[in-house]
Amino acid sequence: MSSDSGARTAFAERLALLYKEAGNPPLKSVAEAVVRLQRVDERGRPVRVSAQRISDWRRARNVPAQFPALAAVLHILMQRLDPSLAAQLDLVAHELRRDDEGTYSRLISIVNAPLATPLSGHTGAVYLTSFSPDGRTLATASYDRTVRLWNVADPHRPKPLGAPLTGHTSWVSSAVFSPDGHTLASAGDDGTIRLWDVTDPAHPVALGRPLTGHTGTIYLAAFSPDGRTLASAGEDHTVRLWNVADPHRPKAVGVLRGHTAAVRSVAFSPDGRTLAAGGDDARILLWDTADPHRPERIRAVLEGHQDIVHSVAFSPDGRTLASGSADDTVRLWDMTDPRRPAAFGSPLTGHTGPVWSVAFSPDGGRLAAASADSTASLWNVADPASPSQVGESLAGSSGEMYALGFSPDGRTLATGSGDGKVRLWSVPATDMVGRNGAFRPDGRVLATAARDGRLRLWNVSRPGRPVPLGKPFMRADGDQRSLVFSPDGRTLAVLTGKKTVHLWKVSAPSHPVPAGPPLRLRTRFMGPHALAYSLDGRTLATAYDDRTIRLWNVGDPARPVPLGEPLTGHRGYVNALAFSPDGHTLAGGSADSTIRLWDVTDPSRPARTGVPLDKHTGPVNALAFSPDGHTLASGSDDDTVRLWNVTDPAAASALGAPLTGHTEAVTSLTFGSRGRTLASGGNDNTVRLWNVSRPFAATPIGQSMSPNAKTANFLSFSPNSHVLGVSSGADTVRLWSLDADAAIRHICAVTRGVLTPEKWHEYLPRLSYDPPCGR
Question: Distance between CA atoms of 505 and 490, rounded to whole angstroms?
């Protein structure tokens, strides 16, 4: 099953549980309507559900006992259609029921996803969005024959700048800024290019006469990095070059031929020496433009797309080219040597309609793609050979999504769509490259390991703005399976897929160095939780595939030494290890469905203590001790979390009934710093919070969060703040703030204008208009 179909299945299951909880026919019809959202038409495209289809929920919402389920159904539906509106409706629900924990969990879940501020003004589809180099102005080109300029110095409170720019006699396809930000070039269906002086963007001035030469539509224009050359892509099968060094006196430079059909897109490499163009012939052609007056066709042709190439874009370092196509895919190309380009792996899939636009983030770590399926997707392309989607697709458009562009600081993504709306998406700034991770004990540094085996250290003193420390570092002997800091934070232990543990000195996190040669293990089976440090940092535990556990003396990380004989007793692979906070007890969780405890007060003479804890009915995947050491949590393939009283490890016992809610195996566990909250992650791609203040009577805190939390590798509370680190997507680690007040402030800042009087009346007809963020 694909990850997408798996997510749809989990989505439908959640809805089924919700309407079962509410137990009333209107809610059932709502749930069924939302499930229909997952279906596709005969062309394989998703079927959209009108807001009118959820009218039944409004008639039922006054029944207090059904509030949690009703609010949850509305949230799920709107998060799929319009997450920004969903966030606003969650705020209304919070105002109505401040004590509802389900609303709390939804606020936390949605605030950690991209949210959007809408811009209204165009009366036709928006085909291009472009930020000025200083990021303070946005230009948008539309089917309504105009270009609009917007003040986006504060992207949460954008304002129109002056009147629309007019002059084109048909729809406008392109509006792009010169590198110095003083000139804007617009082009469109009338076959002309117009130049504008936008030194004062509130008072733009047309420069000279329109540039002519193309016969037919001009689909895109692009400035060279030095701003002296403008390239235009035309329906007439050509790319034209223009000298715009003096925008008051532009001149035609030449015509680039080679395409056998309309040219849809054109892009210069960051050094200006290469130009790429894609078009209706499904090919991407390249030219050497080191001398734009004498462009030279590069023989290599990029082929692989099965339909029109709508968009091409170079990464900021110029080493990668991205292309979006009407075959519904995005492809990445290695442009290290433009004369010998090569495809990076398989195409990026997931969209169910043509990909109209692609754009790299300023740091080159992300790629955004806009599609006719009314969504935009974000991809981690730090390693273009192993790209992975980040989070769920951005939704909210009621028409095809044609355009997108990143702001220069990378914090905002502007999209344009067929409904005439421009949306400014607040892109989460807490995403880091990696599929697993570990917090340093002081919570100020996070280590991550990516799929390509590279390790990174991040300054997370400000969790909302992680900053990389130094350069990625790595070993060339396999991917990194598990990471753990020593208690003093000076050493990072890394378990690899090649039977080794590497110890790194990270006292200076910007300059990590190996502590010594790696530990050579006998094991081949190594999960993300099969490595643990003791409290004093002198003992390291590793799991072996012979069902044993090995203890190591790492008092001198440069010379680790095995301690005693391996710990035996488990009859299956050891999946998880955890030391108690006092360092006297080691817990092991196994594929044999049991947990075993050892007294490691003297780690050179460990002794088994008590009897195996055997309440689980499936393999044990994760373990976590509470900060006071009295409670042990375990997660299993039986989809449950169990709590154990280990105050006396020799007489450990189960605490209450198992905690249920996950629909697949529980793979990760972490306690909050005060021990009152437990977070669990599962293969159902969700995170759940539990109130464990009274561990014998633990209760869920709201509903599950985030349908895209791939927590098998990493789920951890930060030691010093109300932040949860989560692996989100195939190669992304994200920091979630669990502060509800901060979530409310952020939602209001980013989505203030979303809940209009019309939307309020549509969804909340029985309440007087009173938006939660003010009018």
Answer: 6
For residue 616, the one-letter residue type is H
The sign of the CA dihedral 449, 452, 453, 456 is negative
Same domain, 585 and 719: yes
702: containing domain: 432-738
Q: Which two tokens stand for residue 204?
A: 């733009």
What is the number of other CB atoms lying within 10 angstroms of the CB of residue 29? 17
Whole-angstrom distance, CA of residue 313 vs CA of residue 619? 47
Q: What is the maximum alpha-carbon separation in the chain?
A: 89
Helix (H) or strand (E) holding 355: strand 355-360
Considering the domain architecture, whether residues 448 and 417 belong to the same structural domain is answered as no
Total domains, the chain: 3
Highest mean pLDDT among 82-96, 108-122, 422-436, 543-557: 543-557
Q: How far apart are CA 220 and CA 266, in angstroms?
A: 7
Tens-digit pLDDT profile for residues 663-674: 999 999 999 999
**Cα(639)–Cα(502) distance, integer angstroms:** 33
Beta-bridged to residue 332, according to DSSP, are 322
| CA 402 to mean position of chain CA atoms | 21
Final residue in a domain of this structure, among 426, 443, 466: 426
The structure tokens listed for 669 are: 């566990």
- Residues 186 and 305 reside in one and the same domain: yes
Q: Is the separation of the CB atoms in 21 and 30 below 8 Å?
A: no
pLDDT above 90 covers a percentage of the chain that reads: 63
* Predicted structure pTM score: 0.79
Collect all residues with Cβ–Cβ distance below 8 Å to 762 and sequence separation of at least 6: 51
The CA distances from residue 554 to 19, 489, 578, 586, 650, in Å, are 54, 14, 17, 16, 27
pLDDT digits 0-9 by tens, 299-344? 999 999 999 999 999 999 999 999 999 999 999 999 999 999 999 9
